[in-house]
Every structure is written in C-alpha cells, then in structure tokens.
Amino acid sequence: MVAKQQEVVDRLRSLDRSTRLKAVREIKNQIIGNKSKKLSYIKLEAVPRVVELLQENADAFLVVQSAATVGSFAYGLEDGFRAVVASGGVQHLLHAVSSQDNTVVEAALRALKLVWQVWLMLF
Fold first, then answer.
1. 122 pLDDT tier (thresholds 50, 70, 90)
2. Sign of CA pseudo-dihedral 56, 62, 65, 69
3. CA distance 102 to 83
4. Contact present, 89 and 72 (Cβ < 8 Å)
5. How confident is the model at residue 43, as a pLDDT?
6. Which site from 63, 78, 105, 108 is most exposed, i.e. has the minimal number of CB atoms within 10 Å?
C-alpha cells in the first residue's frame, strides 16, 4: 500500500496539470476522516508537495483542491497540523485569500478555519 501512496505523492510533481490534479484529489479523498492514511502520507512528505500546489495561481481548480487537502491534513491530527505549519501552508493559504477568484478565497478560508480549530485545541 505504501508503494501505491508513494506513486500518488510522486505524481504531485508531474509536469502534467491533469496528473497533479488527480493526485491531489486522490490524496484528499483518502485522508478525509482517516488518521492512519494521513500519517502515512505525512511520512511520505506529501504535505510540502501539496502546499507547493497552492502557488499555482493560474489554475484555480488545482489551488482549491490543494487548499482542501491542506485543511484535511491539519484537521484532527496534531502531526498533520505541524506538517502544514512547517511546510509554510498557513502562509500560502493566507496568500490565496487575496486571490481574485472567489472559489480560491473560499477554499483558503475553509482550510484556514480547520487549521485554526486545531491550533485552538493544541494551544
């Protein structure tokens, strides 16, 4: 199973936009409500790669999916929260809030809300 997850993480760096989008959606769908999958993807360094996708300003749908995935990593798992913070996820989400695209803004705000909720529980 870890080999398959590593393949998905590797696809996040593909030059093909469609491949990156499918990979980030696959990760998002696998980690929602599944702490063991979150931990597995964290160990495979998926969080920094997903955070990198938040910088793809020309592709709003990819940014929206990436923001949702970053929020999912942070929510309900201290290790996920710490991985998001360590990889600069909060800064990139804050930057996304200034987007001209309302769907990007909404996705970034939802993800920031999830990060904030974990922060409140921890500190």
1. confident
2. negative
3. 26
4. no
5. 97
6. 78
- DSSP codes joined into one string, 30-66: HHTT-HHHHHHHHHTTHHHHHHHHTT-TT-HHHHHHH
Write down the pLDDT at residue 54. Answer: 94
Q: What angle do CA 97, 30, 49 make, to 5 degrees?
A: 50
Neighbours of 46 (CB within 10 A): 26
Element (H, E) at 68: helix 60-74
Task: Name the CA radius of gyration of the chain, rounded.
Answer: 13
| Distance, CA of 98 to CA of 101 (rounded, Å) | 9
CATH 1.25.10.10 fits 2-122, yes or no: yes
pLDDT digits (tens, 9 = 90+) for 88-111: 999 999 999 999 999 999 999 999
- What pTM value is reported for the model? 0.94
Residue 3 CB: number of other CB atoms within 10 A?
6
Output the six-digit token pair for 60.
């709003």
